[in-house]
Every structure is written in C-alpha cells, then in structure tokens.
C-alpha cells in the first residue's frame, strides 16, 4: 500500500513538473532562458528589398509594395499569387529548422488587412491570408515556439515611404481616430482568435503597432495618450468578456521609449499589467557609431539596451536587429573578405551579450533572397547559419566570450 501511494505521488509530481514546463502561452515568457527568436519577415507583409526573386515570382517584380501589386494584377489573380507565396515562403521545414537551432520564439509580422472586413473597397491588399497564419501558428505551437503577433502594417500606414506598411505613402495616415479604430478592431479580433482557437495557443504577445513615426507633435501625443492605452484596454476587454484568468492573458507589446516617439507608459505612469516593450537595434541606421569593426564590437560589448531612456521599460525584447553595418560595402565589412565570417561571428556573439541583458531578441529576419543583386547573409538568420556565421545554437555564441578582447 505504501509503495502504491509513493508511486502515485511520484507520478503526480512528474505530471506537475511537465505541466509547469509546458508552453501553455498564458502570455508566458521563457523565464529560465532569454527569448531567442527570429522574425518571419516577408511572409504576410512582403518587403521587396529583401526578397527580390520571391517578389518577382509572385508576379510583383515591377511594383513597389503589396498595394501596387494587387491593384495591378487585379484582386482575383493577386489572391491566387499571394496564396502560392504564403504556402511556400515559410514551411514546416523552416519551423523545424528554427527549433533545431536552439531558438524558442518567432515574431510574425502581419498587416491589418488580414481581417478582411476592415479593408475598404478603394484599398488594395491580398485576401485569404488567415488560413495560412493559422497554419504557421499551429506549426510553431507544435514545435514549442513562443509567438508574438506583430501588427506590422497599420491602417493608413504608420510611417512614410515604407514597404513594411504594405502601401508606401508620402504622408502616414494612421494617426487619426478612424484608423485607430480599425487597428483596435484588428487587435480585438486577434485576441479572440488567440483565446478561442487552439492553433494559436502559443501566441503569448500581441504588438499593437510596429515602428510608428508620427509626423507632428499632435500625432505623437495621440500615439501615447490615445492609441497605446486604448489598444491595451480593448485587448483586455476582450479577455474580460471571455473570462480569461489573469495569468493566462496576453502580453501587450509597444515600442520602447528609445524608439523616440514618446514614453509608451505616459498614460499610466508605470507599466500596466503584462506590458512588454520592443526595441529595434539596427547599427545599420546608427550614425553615432563609427563604421569600423572595432567600434562596432566595442559598442555591442558595452551597450545595454535596457538602460538610459529604457530603464523603466520592462520586460524588454529587442524585436528587430541584424548583422548589417551602416556601410555594407565598406572594405571593413565586405562579406567577401577572407576574415569576414570570423568578424561577423564575433559581432553576432557580442550583440547577444547586449540583448540578453534584457529579456532577449528576435533577429530580422529568418530568411531572405537576393538583396541588391547578391547573396547577403547579414539580414537572414538561415543564410548566416549556412555561411558559418551563426552557430547551431545561440548558447555556443554566448560561450565564445567574444567581448573578452575588449575588456567586457
């Protein structure tokens, strides 16, 4: 009898341990390890610059963005073409490889047009993406990957002349009550999907808008005083209506203070429950760091993304970064140099040292094809692995202690 009780208790403890480790996605963050992930860029928001051949294969080679391409091809032909793209750009093989490389998360950029009833008759975006999003989330769930759904392209466009908005415009149209409302409805819809469809079970966070660039002080004020708090409240209201337990709720992600468009916590004064912050760290666009190998290494070894203006933005994830320097053709950074792989391997490791001081990172992006007419691994995690720059696990890069020669 005593032995039976002991066995039952042992089995119960094992079950409890397994349950405690399962990625039930109650906005879970991998607490024992940092977020180590990749963006699935180019899947649902196609950016021509980083996938020229793929863009041409869709039939869009002559056009700048999704709006232009859909308008030119016609809705029916465009829908069919984009479905072929959605079904081939990220496959089960990609998700399996991502998990095999010691990564534990993916960030999925999407456009507001995924919710098709938000699209006006005079707007031009592909239709039919939802089934493909659900399938990607299911594959990521089955692989045990944490998922961030990122509203990468907001209604009206949140920045000017950017392919990542789906429609390159000279004046962003996002910053008004009409387009805010469309974004809120998208976020509510996605929240409901997350909590009612098991294929989305590993979605732990929703980012309410990617890289907003208001053009006036009034737009900037509305972003932090109106959009962020209302987006947060609308998501929480859906969770209230579904009786979602507090610990099962989504993290709600906003761009961090260092992004430069205001303090995302301004409305609250401090971080609201299960808030999450997003830092985009591209030395490619940082004129403050001299474009030399030594300066890049020093910067990454001694920087801390979670300090300064970001000191109170916790938890924080570096949601986008790459291995691209400011001057990609500078002789110091030439990818054809005999010592190029060694430098980029060390710089990758140095950046990990920086970003893992916070909650972790998402590399931009998982895969690319021809950029500026060449194979350039610096924007693609998969390509960097193939080139021997990124090892088979981020832990191996951390173990390199690449910052030791720089005293860090």
Automatic annotation (TrEMBL):
GO CC list: plasma membrane
Key words of the record: Cell membrane, Cell wall biogenesis/degradation, Glycoprotein, Glycosidase, Hydrolase, Membrane, Signal, Signal-anchor, Transmembrane, Transmembrane helix
Biological function: Glucosidase involved in the degradation of cellulosic biomass. Active on lichenan.
GO molecular function, one term: glucan exo-1,3-beta-glucosidase activity
EC class: hydrolase
Principal localisation: membrane
One Gene Ontology biological process: cell wall organization
Official protein name in the record: glucan 1,3-beta-glucosidase
Originating organism: Marchantia polymorpha
InterPro entries, per the entry: GH, Glyco_hydro_5, Glycosyl_hydrolase_5
Domain Glycoside hydrolase family, residue spans: 80-367
EC number of this enzyme: 3.2.1.58
Alphabetized SUPFAM superfamilies for the sequence: (Trans)glycosidases
Lineage start: Eukaryota, Viridiplantae, Streptophyta, Embryophyta, Marchantiophyta
Pfam families, per the entry: Cellulase (PF00150)
Family: Belongs to the glycosyl hydrolase 5 (cellulase A) family.
Leader sequence residues: 1-27
Superkingdom classification of source: Eukaryota
Location of this chain's protein in the cell: Cell membrane
Membrane topology, record value: Single-pass type II membrane protein
Catalyzed chemical reaction(s): Successive hydrolysis of beta-D-glucose units from the non-reducing ends of (1->3)-beta-D-glucans, releasing alpha-glucose
């Amino acid at each position: 009898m005593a032995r039976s009780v002991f066995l039952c208790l042992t089995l119960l403890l094992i079950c409890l341990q397994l349950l405690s480790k399962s990625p039930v996605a109650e906005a879970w963050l991998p607490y024992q390890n940092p977020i180590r992930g990749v963006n699935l860029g180019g899947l649902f928001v196609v950016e021509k610059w980083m996938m020229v051949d793929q863009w041409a294969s869709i039939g869009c080679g002559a056009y700048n963005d999704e709006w232009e391409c859909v308008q030119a091809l016609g809705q029916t032909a465009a829908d069919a073409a984009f479905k072929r793209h959605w079904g081939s750009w990220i496959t089960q093989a990609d998700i399996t490889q991502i998990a095999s490389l010691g990564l534990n998360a993916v960030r999925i950029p999407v456009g507001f047009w995924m919710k098709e009833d938000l699209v006006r008759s005079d707007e031009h975006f592909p239709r039919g993406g939802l089934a493909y999003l659900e399938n990607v989330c299911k594959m990521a769930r089955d692989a045990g990957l944490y998922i961030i759904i990122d509203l990468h392209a907001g209604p009206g466009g949140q920045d000017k002349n950017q392919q990542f908005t789906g429609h390159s415009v000279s004046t962003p149209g996002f910053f008004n009550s009409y387009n805010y409302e469309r974004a809120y409805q998208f976020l509510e819809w996605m929240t409901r999907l997350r909590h009612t469809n098991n294929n989305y079970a590993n979605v732990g966070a929703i980012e309410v808008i990617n890289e907003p660039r208001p053009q006036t002080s009034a737009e900037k004020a509305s972003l932090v005083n109106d959009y962020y708090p209302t987006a947060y409240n609308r998501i929480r209201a859906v969770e209230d209506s579904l009786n979602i337990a507090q610990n099962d709720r989504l993290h709600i992600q906003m761009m961090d203070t260092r992004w430069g468009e205001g303090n995302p916590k301004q409305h609250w004064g401090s971080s609201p429950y299960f808030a999450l912050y997003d830092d985009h760290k591209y030395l490619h666009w940082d004129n403050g760091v001299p474009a030399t190998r030594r300066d890049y290494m020093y910067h990454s070894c001694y920087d801390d993304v979670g300090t300064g203006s970001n000191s109170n933005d916790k938890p924080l994830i570096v949601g986008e970064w790459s291995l691209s320097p400011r001057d990609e053709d500078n002789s110091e950074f030439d990818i054809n140099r005999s010592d190029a792989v060694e430098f980029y391997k060390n710089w990758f490791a140095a950046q990990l040292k920086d970003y893992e001081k916070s909650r972790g990172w998402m590399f931009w992006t998982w895969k690319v094809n021809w950029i500026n007419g060449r194979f350039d691994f610096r924007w693609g995690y998969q390509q960097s692995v193939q080139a021997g720059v990124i090892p088979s696990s981020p832990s191996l890069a951390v173990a390199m202690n690449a910052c030791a020669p720089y005293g860090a």
